[in-house]
TrEMBL record:
Lineage of the organism: Bacteria, Pseudomonadati, Pseudomonadota, Alphaproteobacteria, Sphingomonadales
Coiled-coil segments: none
The protein, known as: DMT family transporter
Residue stretches spanning the membrane: 34-56, 68-88, 94-112, 124-143
Annotated signal peptide: none
Keywords per UniProt: Membrane, Transmembrane, Transmembrane helix
Pfam families in the cross-refs: DMT_YdcZ
Amino acid sequence: MAALIPILIVLLAGVGVAVQPPTNAALAKISGSLWLASLVSFAVGTMVLAAGWAALDRTPLSALKGAPGWAWAGGLYGACFVAALAYAAPRLGLASTLTIAVAGQLVTAILLDHFGLLGLKVEPVSVARIGGVALVIAGVLLVRRG
């Protein structure tokens, strides 16, 4: 049962990832600015996270003092992801946009795992892992042709 909770949390997060691009694309269309829409998305997210941190955690900011330089780049990746998907979803369709994004994530994940980069445990590339990613890439092609 304990293993089910993180799976459910990630499934719900996946729902959020699916509805975020069209939501942000709507803001971009209405405002005429992809950048303003992405900024609003991050501002709302920042407010939610700040409220959660203040109510539930309150770890002091000084705890971040020893973080490596690369650990500060997460917001950059997130901002680029939000803006890219808000741009691509109305042009490619949501299913194509998300399958392309997942394919890129999985290829990168296999490389990061294989080399144990960014503090990850080494998980060597295997035929099964490559096959799984190949199936996702085939899925991208099928969704694009669909």
